[in-house]
């Protein structure tokens, strides 16, 4: 049945089959896996006169008028007036106007469902779900839950819109009912109260009740998340079984001395992170851990403890960062800690003088260097370690898989510590990093003040500049960040270079420097060094300063065209201030604000926790956009589950997957036979280089 072509369905000939192929439907299995994107519950229809603003509602009414507005010089829109005995509802479309104009005719009856808004005194829905009803033919407006399927414009115009798709699938159930082999064991189905697979298929397409629809959705979401987590569980088991690593036997003089020289107390979250890393390094099993922490939470110090433990055990460490500015910043911080301990730290980047580079490579190969800090230059073929035991990769999502692999190939199974300062929602961590041990530093150092954040219009900029002057008069420093290096003819955005020249006129007497990505590494470092040592009052730049700039005396961040930045970038930029003892401030200067931009800036004003902001970001932009291409593969491959909204389902599925693998690492038990077969067919080999993190 699964591989049978859809032409086996009555009414589906070559023409319809060709159209369905456009959306990936060629076999019966493809058709049954084409799940509805929404449902219209016609049993809970409301009268138009009782609609409440903001609610999701379903109404039934007849078309009174269809009006197309706009045209060649104005944006087109379609307004349809629907009425029943209690009132009238306006339905509006701003996209697909031509199609919807032909879909509605005066006098036709429709069932529509969407979010209710009010335009003046009249209720309105924008781009609702809709279904034409044949009331004269006896079709009841209150008859059951209707599945709504996605459809392209070409399919709709060919009669395969949501209603046409419903007809095809209904005929398929009549002609060739689903006969899928079960992919979960009887024990799992019973333990988690899951619908059998074929009943779940019937109920997801044609639910007999809301309760049965919920159970069908739960079954498919649970199964999908179970196999995704099974992938992680098997990968983790394989790493632990086959990738033994050097056992760190002891913590000695270096780690004790590092702890003793700290001028402040570590947070409990930092201490817990160090304990978890120590436990991994002493286990004899290769560490594969992600260290997550908000900006300024002290991840670098935690990594330093891991590297001093490596030194205590006669092993070298490598620390790789994505940019030269960030790598050099880490180098300076680590050198400050390492020198009093007698540890040697080297720096390697792409544009070093040959003599300096040669000395670093020689010291590394002879074992004279304990820690190597650098950019992707660390993974070049000429770089050879004497005894690499620990690889630390900062902002790991900025490196490709092959780059991370090249570092790990410098030794035989070194321990791995991945770090990120871009908070990922706790609800996502389990779904994205299911095979990694995840440590979260969710506390900021004691005494760290929250950054006061304010939104302001471009017209209020003079007040921002007055405040900037007052901060500089107190001996503080500031940043101004622009979204572009040079002005664009296509976008009316202020650019760093042009604005820098204007600022020199506006802020006379202020010592300022310019930094952006088009400058050479040496030029950028010279400007950064001047700012770091207080020779500059104001640093003007682009998002090149998003990470890696740590100047405790900087107390003011001004972000121009803040509406153009995502939440993660805004939070990272704000994190460049508030790193010292002084109260710090962030001004979000904006021009025009759309709904999403307004929500982002409002969140920045009211929330300082990067993890909370990341959850809002995920809700606004979607999971894939938040995580980026490198991390979102497993997430974007989900067809029906949502790892944010379905977190509880994922937790249940994850526990079940890991319990099975703990008992049966190779899935050899006969009770897991169907799980093994399904996994091998759909997941095995899907992700290569799987143990790199």
From TrEMBL:
<keyword id="KW-0067">ATP-binding</keyword>
<dbReference type="InterPro" id="IPR014001">
    <property type="entry name" value="Helicase_ATP-bd"/>
</dbReference>
<keyword id="KW-0234">DNA repair</keyword>
<comment type="function">
    <text>Plays a critical role in recombination and DNA repair. Helps process Holliday junction intermediates to mature products by catalyzing branch migration. Has replication fork regression activity, unwinds stalled or blocked replication forks to make a HJ that can be resolved. Has a DNA unwinding activity characteristic of a DNA helicase with 3'-5' polarity.</text>
</comment>
<dbReference type="InterPro" id="IPR047112">
    <property type="entry name" value="RecG/Mfd"/>
</dbReference>
<dbReference type="InterPro" id="IPR004609">
    <property type="entry name" value="ATP-dep_DNA_helicase_RecG"/>
</dbReference>
<keyword id="KW-0378">Hydrolase</keyword>
<comment type="similarity">
    <text>Belongs to the helicase family. RecG subfamily.</text>
</comment>
<feature type="domain" description="Helicase ATP-binding">
    <location>
        <begin position="280"/>
        <end position="441"/>
    </location>
</feature>
<dbReference type="InterPro" id="IPR012340">
    <property type="entry name" value="NA-bd_OB-fold"/>
</dbReference>
<keyword id="KW-0547">Nucleotide-binding</keyword>
<protein>
    <recommendedName>
        <fullName>ATP-dependent DNA helicase RecG</fullName>
        <ecNumber>5.6.2.4</ecNumber>
    </recommendedName>
</protein>
<keyword id="KW-0227">DNA damage</keyword>
<keyword id="KW-0238">DNA-binding</keyword>
<dbReference type="GO" id="GO:0016887">
    <property type="term" value="F:ATP hydrolysis activity"/>
</dbReference>
<dbReference type="Pfam" id="PF00271">
    <property type="entry name" value="Helicase_C"/>
</dbReference>
<dbReference type="Pfam" id="PF19833">
    <property type="entry name" value="RecG_dom3_C"/>
</dbReference>
<keyword id="KW-0413">Isomerase</keyword>
<dbReference type="GO" id="GO:0043138">
    <property type="term" value="F:3'-5' DNA helicase activity"/>
</dbReference>
<dbReference type="GO" id="GO:0006281">
    <property type="term" value="P:DNA repair"/>
</dbReference>
<dbReference type="Pfam" id="PF17191">
    <property type="entry name" value="RecG_wedge"/>
</dbReference>
<dbReference type="GO" id="GO:0003677">
    <property type="term" value="F:DNA binding"/>
</dbReference>
<dbReference type="Pfam" id="PF00270">
    <property type="entry name" value="DEAD"/>
</dbReference>
<dbReference type="InterPro" id="IPR011545">
    <property type="entry name" value="DEAD/DEAH_box_helicase_dom"/>
</dbReference>
<dbReference type="InterPro" id="IPR027417">
    <property type="entry name" value="P-loop_NTPase"/>
</dbReference>
<dbReference type="GO" id="GO:0006310">
    <property type="term" value="P:DNA recombination"/>
</dbReference>
<dbReference type="InterPro" id="IPR001650">
    <property type="entry name" value="Helicase_C-like"/>
</dbReference>
<dbReference type="InterPro" id="IPR045562">
    <property type="entry name" value="RecG_dom3_C"/>
</dbReference>
<dbReference type="GO" id="GO:0005524">
    <property type="term" value="F:ATP binding"/>
</dbReference>
<keyword id="KW-0347">Helicase</keyword>
<dbReference type="InterPro" id="IPR033454">
    <property type="entry name" value="RecG_wedge"/>
</dbReference>
<feature type="domain" description="Helicase C-terminal">
    <location>
        <begin position="460"/>
        <end position="624"/>
    </location>
</feature>
<keyword id="KW-0233">DNA recombination</keyword>
